[in-house]
Specification:
Blueprint (H helix, E strand, L loop, with lengths): L4 H9 L3 E4 L2 E2 L2 E5 L5 E7 L7 E8 L7 E7 L4 E8 L3 E2 L19 E2 L5 E4 L9 E4 L16 H15 L5 E5 L4
Parallel strand pairs: 3-12
Antiparallel strand pairs: 1-2, 1-4, 4-5, 5-6, 6-7, 7-10, 8-9, 10-11
């Protein structure tokens, strides 16, 4: 199934809840450990035609290389991903389906120090288009090896959940790090 830009926006805005053992969760406690690697299935009560997968991955080699990924699960189409400390190269050609905000970044090579956010763009492979976090609405622009890394990491998890409209109340247990 090919997803249009409009459909991707609809799917991101759908209210979702985390599913565990066939139950929709109102609350979830996440134990944060290193390296953090988690996958959550999501469902929308409003439109149960779609299922979603939310992945949070922290590199074992580099404790500050982190990806937060959200996809429509049936088609495996990525809808949104935030990358900290990870390189990326945007496509060299922009079709008529590429939104205006990506135009200045055609062919852009993001260094590992340029934190960025990927969006679904119709007609391209999953999540190949990104813009710098510095110009995006996503509020947490930096994640670095600082004394408040655990707090920032936990806040990013919550912010990403809010951004993709996850209604499950998420608490992060950071005492394990």
């Amino acid at each position: 199934m090919k997803i249009t830009n409009e459909q991707a926006e609809y799917l991101l805005k759908l209210p979702k809840k985390i599913v565990q053992k066939d139950m929709l969760l109102d609350k979830l406690i996440i134990d944060q450990k290193f390296p953090f690697d988690a996958r959550f299935e999501l469902v929308s009560e409003k439109d149960d035609e779609f299922t979603f997968l939310w992945e949070i991955h922290q590199s074992k080699k580099n404790c500050i290389r982190v990806s937060f990924h959200h996809q429509e699960n049936d088609s495996k189409t990525g809808l949104l991903r935030v990358d900290y400390n990870s390189g990326h190269k945007n496509p060299e050609v922009a079709t008529e389906h590429v939104p205006e905000k990506f135009h200045p970044f055609v062919g852009k090579c993001f260094s590992i120090k340029e934190h960025h956010i990927h969006y679904h763009v119709q007609g391209y492979k999953s999540l190949v288009w990104a813009v710098p976090l510095s110009i995006d609405e996503f509020e947490i622009k930096e994640l670095n090896d600082s004394t408040d890394f655990n707090v920032t990491f936990a806040n990013i998890i919550k912010l990403f959940a809010k951004t993709v409209n996850i209604e499950t109340d998420i608490k992060i247990n950071t005492l394990l790090l």
